Amino acid sequence: MRENPGRFGEYAYGYDLAGNRTGEQIGTGTNGPVALSQSSYNNVNQMTSRTGGSGLMQFAGVINKPATVTVGGNAAPVNQATTNFAGYASVALGTNVVPVIATDYSNNSKTNKYQMVVANNGVAKTISYDLNGNETSVVTATSTNTYPTMGCSQPDGIRNRADEPKPVHVRRLWPAGADC
Fold first, then answer.
1. Which pLDDT tens digit goes with each residue over 126-142?
2. Does one domain contain both 84 and 149?
3. Is residue 78 domain-shared with residue 115, that is, in the same domain?
4. Handedness of CA 174, 179, 149, 180 (dihedral sign)
5. Distance between CA atoms of 139 and 54, rounded to whole angstroms?
6. Which of residues 103 and 176 earns the better pLDDT score?
C-alpha cells in the first residue's frame, strides 16, 4: 500500500441530500493535526449545531494489486482497474491509531497503522432562529450572542439598522442573522 500524494494537505467534505455541508476535514495528519467538524440542520436547511473534534476521517491510497481494503474496520471501496481506494474511520479528539488493512484474493494481508492527531475545528455552537427564519442566537460554551430581528432594513442589500442615521461614508453593519 502507498498513500495517495494528491490527497495530502487537502480538504474533504460531506453533504446531505439537500446539499448542506454535514462534515468537514481539514488536513490529513501527515504534517500536523487534522481538524474535523460535523454540522446538523433543521427541516428548512438552517444550520442548528456545529461540533468539532470528532467524526469520520477520510483515508485514500493505492494498492499494488486487486484486493479488499478496510479502514478502521470499515470496508473501503476499491477501484479494481486503478487499485485506488478511499474509506472512512471514526476518530475522536486527540491521538488516534487507524489500521488500514489490504487483503488480496490469495488471503495475504498487509496492515499499515496511521497515528493521527485530531484537533478541535472551531468552537461548538448551537444556533436558533425565529419563525421568520432569522437567526436569533448563537450559543457556545463561553458565550451567547443574540441578534435583533426588528427595526432592520436592507434596501441596498447591506444590513443596516433603520433607526440609525447613515453618514455618507460610514455604515454600521449588523450580523448576517440580523435582517428582517
1. 888 888 888 888 887 77
2. no
3. yes
4. positive
5. 20
6. 103
